[in-house]
Amino acid sequence: MTDQTLEQIFEQQFGQPSTHRFFAPGRINLIGEHTDYNGGHVFPCALTLGTHAIARKRDDQVFRFYSLNFEADGIIEVSGDDLTHQPVHGWANYAKGMIHVLREAGYQIDEGCDILIKGDIPNGAGLSSSASLELVIGVLLDTLYELQLDRIELVKYGQQVENQYIGVNSGIMDQFAIGMGKAGSGLLLDCETLDYTYAPLDLSGYTIIIMNTNKRRELADSKYNERRSECEEALTYLQQYRPYATLGQWSTVEFEAVPFEDERLQRRARHAISENERTLQALDALTEGRLEAFGQLMNASHRSLQVDYAVTGQELDTLVEAAWSQSGVLGARMTGAGFGGCAIAIVEDETVEAFMTAVGRQYEAAIGYPASFYTATVGDGAREVEQEVI
């Protein structure tokens, strides 16, 4: 299979050649974790790792899906008049959900299509493989059915799939970063207003390392929704003191003046508020070329996620603390929702190999199985790409 193009595999599976090829990246969040659904800021970037989709329209109402990441599932075939969520369809629910949501919004998707998927994002790693799949299907449908979708509207539809169709109460950051990413840039996003700014990511002399705990985490089954409801509860309590609509509107100074009886809710809110301030400070630090200050903000972010938000766990803490102990490291923190998944570190170019060896050794000794390491390259958002010539 390694010598075959995706186009050749498509033709083998579906019996006809494909007509279009698309790509949507994964994402990492440099700083600003669990702030998106609290009306705060995030600072993600799109990666060159992501999800490829090869497609061809059909002349009937049938949709057929095949993934090289889940070959044992074979071709998943569904009728266009029944796009309801079916647990047995696994990964294909994200694709079905995108078709369903766009149709519900009034877009004409009258014929079916054949779609082959290959993702090179480590599954369950917290680099947002689900949002990448939603957005690659979104740009595919936009092109094949000439929907002329506004890109930010498409991003919102992707979040709707996650929230309403899949049932994960996540914010808009993942879909936004994947839909709007730009090579060589981070993206400061106000999750309340959707105002955004591209910020040049000039990390000359440094490499972003993604460190995968290899502990699977499934968002829908994690404490993610629990944290979100705790923040809503904290906000309701705080609104007795100030009529702010989100935690992101609070400052740390204002927050610290409020008496709390419930220490758990206090810690959850303190993370959301302080992390939002760190994210804005991080943009200033990067813009001004103060990389060391940016690294220190990353470290503080991890400590807040560990102590106040309680979403790191032994695996992520082991990786990050091992990273902090190495020379040539600007900063390190968990990225994504937590509960497993990945951490990131910004490391001097000449120490990358030594860093991965030392951190890998410490992690395996403490946890009992190895971590995986990837160097991250910042890429463009979801798009159509040239088909490979067969």
From TrEMBL:
Residues annotated for substrate binding in this entry: 33-36, 224
Residues of the site described as Transition state stabilizer: 27
Keywords, ordered alphabetically: ATP-binding, Carbohydrate metabolism, Cytoplasm, Galactose metabolism, Kinase, Magnesium, Metal-binding, Nucleotide-binding, Transferase
Active-site annotation: 174
Localization annotation: Cytoplasm
Domain of life: Bacteria
NCBIfam families: gal_kin, PRK05322.1
Species name: Exiguobacterium undae
Main location: cytoplasm
Catalytic activity: alpha-D-galactose + ATP = alpha-D-galactose 1-phosphate + ADP + H(+)
Binding sites annotated in the UniProt record for Mg(2+): 130, 162
Pfam families assigned to the protein according to its UniProt record, in alphabetical order: GalKase_gal_bdg (PF10509), GHMP_kinases_C (PF08544), GHMP_kinases_N (PF00288)
Originating gene: galK
Residue stretches making up the GHMP kinase C-terminal domain: 283-364
Record family assignment: Belongs to the GHMP kinase family. GalK subfamily.
Task of the protein: Catalyzes the transfer of the gamma-phosphate of ATP to D-galactose to form alpha-D-galactose-1-phosphate (Gal-1-P).
Residues annotated as binding ATP: 67, 124-130
EC number, UniProt record: 2.7.1.6
Protein's name in the database: Galactokinase
Pathway in which the depicted protein is active: Carbohydrate metabolism; galactose metabolism
Domain Galactokinase N-terminal: 10-57
Domain GHMP kinase N-terminal: from-to ranges: 93-182
